[in-house]
Amino acid sequence: YCSTEHALCGKPDQIEGSLAAFLPDLSLAKRKTWRNPWRRSYHKRKKADQSENGLFSSLCSIGNMDRHHYETFEKFGNETFIIHLDNGRGFGKYSHDELSILVPLNQCCRIRKSTYLRLQLLAKEEYKLSHLMKESLLKDKIAPILYQPHLEAMDRRLRIVLKAVSDCIEKDGYDNVVEND
Hints:
It is a single chain. The protein is mainly α. It has one domain. 38% of the residues lie in helices and 8% in strands. It contains 6 helices and 4 strands; from the N terminus they run βαβαβααααβ. It has helices spanning 47-60, 103-108, 113-122, 129-137, 148-172, 174-177, and strands spanning 31-35, 69-73, 111-112, 178-179. The strands form 2 sheets. The chain has a two-stranded antiparallel ribbon with strand order 1-2. A two-stranded parallel sheet has the order 3-4. α4 (129-137) runs antiparallel to α5.
């Protein structure tokens, strides 16, 4: 998928992060739907955004294999952050790790340094992803949000993601994989 002939393989714009939010009504803030560049061809230097979106989806096991589109607010065109609608599939199957979601990371082998450092931190026992998620979700009015096996699956998937990055670094070298941001 990744080669120097494709603009998406360059040094892409930064994405602020992933979040769940209630979006304004379409009458207030129209959105534009774009075909996912990962699905067909590279477009508008979105490789890091798509790689990290896949990485986040993998941790949550969204398992949505129908990721053909993403959205942006119409006013800003395609030169802004991406909005990827989950349609409620998040945390669906704790026993299944959908590894194909990591294709952008595995094939292009590029990750932002800040993301990589954060993932390494979340793999440490004192900052374990499952513990931090559980603590954060306990504050929600409808707690408990996630079943313990879902939380444990996040730690397992984090190890899979870090192994994929490690394999990329071994193959291509740290400076070619980990992008300063």
